[in-house]
């Protein structure tokens, strides 16, 4: 995968070198050097660090003013329910900017001549990723404060993010559709299908018991993975990056996704003890500090946890179809984790812990 990132870096270096609009957006002069280096990649985007270096600075102060770092994101696969991934993410970052903990979007290129499926440039946010396998004492509290900060941002009238009437039922239906694709494919395993049917039935029952949402009017990321939290050491604040698939919905969706075993195990070997789940939820609502009502979030949290787990299993099933016998973009992590997630042992653990 490092070779693939290096190849992207070479291709994109040519792209940024001749892009006057990009230079203007980040305040780089024609004399400044733009340097790219691999930063990281996921299923949908490849990220590179973009450093602006003033090569002809006349003094140290001028050089300090001009040197800066940004993130260049290339979309390689759009998310569902919108066709223009980079535009959607750009608009989302503008909406959530008042939180003060998200990268500012600076440049957008969704043209046919853009690399991949489009390019987004945003401010670079420093700091190490949240690491469940090496938690500092205040890491989870800081993550709770970051999540509360972006949830508390009032949704502007101009916000174009997807607004499902019932986010819980919509995501459940998406999971069912993924399982339908899996059952109809050449990659179906009857063992996995039996697990899927059990999980779907129990989740449907939980959704019916959860009732209707009373507050689905917050910007939620929908995919708060540990790697999306950047926590600079020696600071009380931090950043939340990667806004591929936000919606206007319920805060319980982000809370359940973050705490679900299918989420933590993706980036680590960590699984939240039950007591720590309660402690995180308490820290989150303390951080909200009355900026919005708690409503029925607690009542719907259990159903959201089940949907979060179901979503991960459904994603793995669809991934088997997508990657089976193809050379489509795939991370090393996906190749390693997929067989574990669909193993009897892991599915049994999910059943015991969440259902």
Which helices and strands appear, and what pairs or packs with what?
Layout: H1 2-17, H2 20-25, E1 33-41, E2 45-53, H3 60-66, E3 68-75, H4 85-96, E4 105-109, E5 119-123, H5 139-151, H6 167-183, H7 190-210, E6 218-220, E7 229-230, E8 239-240, E9 247-249, H8 251-259, H9 261-267, H10 274-288, H11 297-323, H12 332-341, H13 344-354
Antiparallel strand pairs: 1-2, 2-3, 3-5, 4-5, 6-9, 7-8
Summarize the structure.
By secondary structure, the protein is of the alpha+beta class. It is built from 13 helices and nine strands.
Keywords, separated by commas or semicolons:
single chain; 355 residues; alpha+beta; five-stranded antiparallel beta sheet; 13 helices; 13% strand; globular
Question: What does this 3D model show about the protein?
Answer:
The protein has 355 residues and is α+β, with helices and mostly antiparallel strands. It is built from 13 helices and nine strands. β1 and β2 form a beta hairpin. The two termini are 36 Å apart.
